[in-house]
Amino acid sequence: MDSGQKIEDALAAALALTATNDCPPQLAAALHHAVFPGGQRLRPRLVYAVAQACGTANSPAVAAAAASIELIHCASLVHDDLPCFDDAATRRGRPSVHAAFGQPIAVLAGDTLIVLAFETLGRHLSRYPTRLQKLIGIVGRAAGAPFGICAGQAFESEPEIDLAAYHRAKTGALFAAASAAGAAASGFDAEAWRHLGACVGEAYQIADDIRDAVSTMDEAGKPVGRDAALGRPTAANLGIPEALARLDSLIADATASIPACPGREKLAKAITHQAERFLPPQYGRRAA
Fold it and tell me: What residues contact residue 222 under an 8 Å CB cut-off, 6+ apart?
């Protein structure tokens, strides 16, 4: 079974906790809508990739860590699409949660997914108290402030924004958490792996900025041109060649930072290959 199926199974098990007769039907439906079908599942795949490089990808702790990271990500998308932020009517090629269920349910669905992420860790790591403690800290730091996605979203309300700090918080934080969580769930030093995810996350954000600037809605599966319309800081404003050069530098930094482990070479190749897939087709370059 590849990591993709393991991720879907772990998410389905987590959502099953909410799909009961005790849960308000609209909220239960909105939670499922927010999580399934998913996108590329990049963040939980990074959890598994790090765990596999460490030689422990089949641990239940890894599955729980991957699911918790993706639940936080899905929550952030629900909130990001709200009218008070991006006001996006579509996500992943279909109505966003607030468009389908209304704003009150969307706010509650995002909140529920955040809580569910921590509940998932607690349910599956009770046998590993040290790992559980580390993972709660890792996921909490990535979700909140001053370094997490809540802080990243809040930067958009500031009169002036440091682009690097904005990207580190809004996108890089959860990628950094994914790489750290993969190591922590495997019983390895989490902090040694954090820089890898931070670099991959910033690279992904640069690619996303480029997609927002040059792609069509059909290609992206969501509204495009929102950064320009809302006056958001974006790497595309640097110029596409400069943005691509920065992306390449980040991927090189990411692969160089991989700690010594049995799967180091394989992981480096996978990251380089994935970086090619981040980009719109017109800018995609064949991985070396």
Answer: 88, 90, 91, 92, 93
